[in-house]
Amino acid sequence: MKLAALAAFLGMAAPAALLAQTATPPTDSTVTGTMPSGEATGVAASQNPVVMPHSEAAPEPATAPAAASATPAATPQDFVNQAASSGMFEVQSSELALERAGSDEVKDFARMMIRDHGELNEQLKAMAAAKGLTVPAEIAGPPAQHMEAVTGAEGDSFDRTYLDHQAQAHAEAIALFEPWAEQTDDTDMAALAQKAVQHIRTHQETLEKIRAD
Predict the structure, then answer these.
(1) Positions of the region Disordered (predicted)?
(2) What is the rounded CA–CA span in Å between residue 141 and residue 71?
(3) CA distances, 159 to each of 3, 63, 116, 194 (Å)
(4) pTM for this one?
């Protein structure tokens, strides 16, 4: 009886020992899987930091454009052509304003245009002749478009059309004359451009007051 009982006991103990030897020990991943979601995320984040792709990185600030050069890009003949067209528009459109404008204030402005730009036009002709440059006889480019618009305006719309196109033409004239006023290669041309800029700035201030009324 004792031998039979011992054999039975050994038969039951052997499978239990074998099972203990073959059982898989828990791994880090197994442990992580049993953690609460918040703790598991914290472990993953600390072990595997997120690296942003290079394409998603913040763009570098754009480089500021270089300052525009004060040296005129156009040739002296180009300057004379553009300045003459600008001056002719100022005078001819203002002569038309003396006939069609309904406002005395607008007519006074037109007289100032005829006086100042008429003087500049004569000085431009004299300087061009001394330098062997040609002065055009007709308006061309943007001044021609301004002249066409003013010529086509009549009645109550004339004053506003005339003032609007005068404002645009004066802004264009500033862009034309200022670079030449700052250059030093030709003092005669620079002096004329400087005088033109002074007149044009005064005209712009007057225009702003009239158009604000």
Answers:
(1) 53-74
(2) 22
(3) 131, 45, 20, 29
(4) 0.65
